[in-house]
C-alpha cells in the first residue's frame, strides 16, 4: 500500500500538466488554440503560466491520488494473490484485481476528480484567456461553491462515468502489465529485467489501456465539467450577494442538437434548450455513459470519441511507467529491509 501510494501519486503529479491539456481539448473541442497537444501546451503555458495554468487543479489531484492509490494497490494485491492461491487463471486474477481495486478507491478519487477537472478547465482565477464557465479561487472555494450551488452530490457528478472509465482502464492496464512483465522475464530468463524494460512494460501497458478507454474519458470529462443547476453565467462564490433560488433539473434526457446560431465562448453552465455554440461542446444532460457515447458519435463522429487521445496516451504511458517502476522498486527495497531485520534478529 505504501509503495503503491508513493508511486501512484508521484506519477500523477509529474504528468499533471498533460492531463490539463487533455481536459482542455475534451472540454473545449472547438477552441482552435487547443487543437493539437503542442499548441495547447504552449498556449496554456504562455497565457496562464505553469502553476496556475498547466498545474491548475494539482491540489485536489494530489489529495485524491495518494489515498486513492494506497487503497487501490492494497486491494489489488490482496485480491490478485487470493485469486491466484485459489487456482484462478492468472489473466483473470489480474483483471479482477484491477477492477476490485479501482472500485474501492473510487470513493476517494471521484470527488477529487470533479474538483481537479473543473479547475483544469478553468485555469487561473479570473482567467482572461479562456471562458470555462467557472471562476473558483482555489480548491476550498471550489468545494464550497459546488456544495452551495449544486449540492453535496455534485462532488460525485460523473461517478458512474468515472467508474465506467477507470474499471476497464485499471483492468486492462494491469492485465497488459503483468503479461508484458511475464514476456520480459522469459526473454531475459531472470526475475530482474532491468530498469529499461521495467519502464517500457509499465509505459506500454498504461498507454495502450489509456488509448482504448479514451472515449469513456471524454464522456466523463463532459459530464463532470457541466453545472446542472444555477445561473448560466460563470460561477463564483462572490459573484452575487442574493442569488436566485436554484431549481434542480433532471438529467435523464439529452439536449437535442441544432445548427449553431452564433459563436460565443464556451460555457459549461446549466444545460438549456438553446443551440450549442460553435466554440464549445454540445451540452450533456445525462449521467449515462452509453447515452453520452451515442451523443458524441452522432454529433462529432469517431473524432469526438478520441478528443485528447494524444495527451491521454502520453500521460497514461509516463504516469504508468513512473508509478509501476517506483512500485516495484519500493517493494524490492522493503523486502530487503525486512530480510536484513530478520537476519539481525
TrEMBL record:
Note down the stretches annotated as region Disordered: 227-283
Composition bias, Low complexity: 263-281
What Pfam families does the record tag this protein with? Answer: Mito_carr
Where in or outside the cell? Membrane
Gene Ontology CC annotation, any one: membrane
Please indicate which superkingdom the organism of origin belongs to.
Answer: Eukaryota
Membrane spanning residue stretches = 54-76, 91-110
UniProt keyword annotation of Membrane present? yes
Topology class, membrane? Multi-pass membrane protein
Solcar repeat extents:
1-82, 89-183, 193-333
Family annotation (Gene3D superfamilies): Mitochondrial carrier domain
> Known PROSITE patterns for this protein?
SOLCAR
List, as start-end ranges, the regions of compositional bias called Polar residues: 227-244
**Signal peptide per UniProt:** none
- What name does UniProt use for this protein? Mitochondrial carrier
Species name: Morchella conica CCBAS932
Lineage of the native species? Eukaryota, Fungi, Dikarya, Ascomycota, Pezizomycotina
Amino acid at each position: 500500500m505504501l509503495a503503491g501510494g508513493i508511486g501512484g501519486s508521484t506519477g500523477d503529479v509529474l504528468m499533471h500538466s498533460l492531463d490539463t491539456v487533455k481536459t482542455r481539448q475534451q472540454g473545449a473541442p472547438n477552441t482552435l488554440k487547443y487543437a493539437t497537444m503542442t499548441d495547447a501546451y504552449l498556449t496554456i503555458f504562455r497565457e496562464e503560466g505553469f502553476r496556475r495554468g498547466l498545474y491548475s487543479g494539482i491540489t485536489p489531484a494530489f489529495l485524491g491520488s495518494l489515498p486513492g492509490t494506497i487503497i487501490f494497490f492494497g486491494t489489488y494485491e490482496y485480491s490478485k494473490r487470493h485469486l491466484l492461491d485459489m487456482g484462478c487463471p492468472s489473466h483473470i486474477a489480474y483483471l479482477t484485481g484491477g477492477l476490485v481495486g479501482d472500485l474501492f478507491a473510487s470513493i476517494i478519487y471521484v470527488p477529487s476528480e470533479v474538483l481537479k477537472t473543473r479547475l483544469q478547465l478553468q485555469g487561473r482565477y479570473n482567467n482572461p484567456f479562456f471562458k470555462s464557465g467557472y471562476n473558483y479561487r482555489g480548491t476550498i472555494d471550489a468545494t464550497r461553491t459546488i456544495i452551495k450551488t449544486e449540492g453535496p452530490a455534485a462532488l460525485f457528478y460523473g461517478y458512474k462515468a468515472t467508474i465506467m472509465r477507470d474499471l476497464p482502464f485499471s483492468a486492462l492496464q494491469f492485465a497488459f502489465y503483468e503479461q508484458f512483465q511475464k514476456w520480459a522475464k522469459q526473454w531475459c530468463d531472470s526475475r530482474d529485467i532491468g530498469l529499461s524494460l521495467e519502464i517500457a512494460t509499465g509505459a506500454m501497458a498504461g498507454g495502450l489501456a489509456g488509448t482504448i478507454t479514451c472515449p469513456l474519458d471524454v464522456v466523463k470529462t463532459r459530464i463532470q465539467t457541466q453545472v446542472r443547476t444555477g445561473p448560466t453565467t460563470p460561477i463564483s462564490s462572490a459573484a452575487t450577494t442574493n442569488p436566485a433560488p436554484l431549481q434542480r433539473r433532471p438529467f435523464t434526457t439529452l439536449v437535442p442538437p441544432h445548427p449553431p446560431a452564433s459563436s460565443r465562448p464556451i460555457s459549461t453552465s446549466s444545460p438549456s434548450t438553446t443551440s450549442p455554440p460553435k466554440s464549445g461542446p454540445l451540452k450533456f444532460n445525462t449521467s449515462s455513459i452509453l447515452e453520452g457515447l451515442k451523443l458524441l458519435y452522432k454529433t462529432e463522429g469517431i473524432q469526438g470519441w478520441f478528443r485528447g487521445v494524444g495527451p491521454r496516451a502520453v500521460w497514461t504511458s509516463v504516469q504508468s511507467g513512473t508509478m509501476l517502476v517506483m512500485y516495484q522498486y519500493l517493494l524490492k527495497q522493503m523486502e530487503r529491509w525486512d530480510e536484513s531485520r530478520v537476519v539481525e534478529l
